[in-house]
Amino acid sequence: MKVEIPIQVRKSGDWVRGWCQSMSVRGLGATLAGDFAVGDRVEVLFRIPDQGSEDVTVSAFVIWKTGLSHGFEFLTLPNSCRQAIEIVCSEDSPEAGPNVGRAY
Question: pTM higher than 0.90, yes or no?
Answer without folding.
Answer: no
